[in-house]
Amino acid sequence: MLQDIEVLFKIRRFDPDVDTMSRFESFPVQVKGMMTVLDGLLQVFEEQDSTLSFRFACREGVCGSCAMFINGSYRLACQTQIRELKTPEISVNPLPHLKVIKDLVVDLDPFFNKIEQVMPYLETLTAPPETEQVQTQAERKLINEVIDCILCGSCYSACPVVWFNKEYLGPAALTKAYRFVADSRDGLSPERLNQVSHEDGIWRCHTVFNCVEACPKNIQPADAIEKLRKKTISRRLKFWK
Question: What pLDDT does residue 1 have?
Answer without folding.
Answer: 76
